[in-house]
Amino acid sequence: MDITKEIFGETDQQSVYAFTMKNDHGMEITCLNYGCIITKILAPDSEGRLENVVLGFDSLEEYRNHSPYFGAVVGRVAGRIKGGSFIIEGRNYVLPKNENGNHLHGGFKGFNNVIWEAKVLEKENEGSVQFTYLSPDGEEGYPGNVQISVTYTLTNTNELVISYKGKSDQKTLLNLTNHTYFNLSGNLRRKITDHSLKIKSDSILELNEQLLPTGEIKSVEGTPFNFQHARIVRDGIESDHPQILLAGNGYDHPFLLNTNHDKEIVLWDEESGRSLTIETDEPGVVLYTGNQLDGHFKIRGVLSNPHLGLCLETQGLPDAIHHPHFPSIILDKDEQYSSVTTYQFGTL
Description:
single chain; mainly beta; Beta-galactosidase, Chain A, domain 5; nine-stranded antiparallel beta sheet; six-stranded antiparallel beta sheet; 3 helices; 30 strands; 5% helix; Aldose_1-epimerase; Galactose_mutarotase-like; carbohydrate binding
């Protein structure tokens, strides 16, 4: 296992570093101490060819100017919070409204836009980069001083493990995820429309016109949201299902997982032979098929367009604070927040 560190850029008079972990089989993961951004994952295809399977940039300026959360950790709360406010113990907390009158992915200064402390950890068959950040009381309107750690670990079995931990000195909200856009074709050779996907989920959250959960939990049976048996992503994107049209001709929906750490999410690309198996202890995963990507910037020479990548954001359910029947995302004072998601890269 080899881990290197190099300067990636500078912001607010602070250096941004890129850390590259390379395992004994040549698989590489590069991540930044800015936003915990994963910029590259070089994974083998069925012929052993290593190519990048995530969307990202080669400069900090591009991340700051164009990135729709490429590869970043988002928080304090992933997803949307209706009206940019919530109530805990009778007190109303007002958050920045950074999308259509709602609060999205932690606000203007979410975890994706801050410098994290970074430490390299090495063991015999794995290497890790541990990022830590103290989010002060009142940051983006949230209560509590929250100490966060996010650890990326690459193993010699071509597995990426993301471990999240957090603790607050006040009752607050916390719901973290990683917002990597995957494309298993390699080096953005093709869109993700012909990727196959399987999700062990029999229900989704219905969304309204602002892409906020209505509170209704809908069965996937007989709909383009039924991934209990593998299906081509294109099938749903090209359907006329009202929820698909609502999200901009694609998916942007939370799926409730039936099981955990049981190969509950599997994505693969038949042509390259690459596969990705995701396991998590979170109750849900948001499938987003890059519907809002447009052509006003390039991603390493490739014009950004809808469906160039897809996200599988393991997390608590969006806007859970306004829906008591959803699993709670409230973190009590001195309670330990902990979440683990693994990404196993393989071949068919």
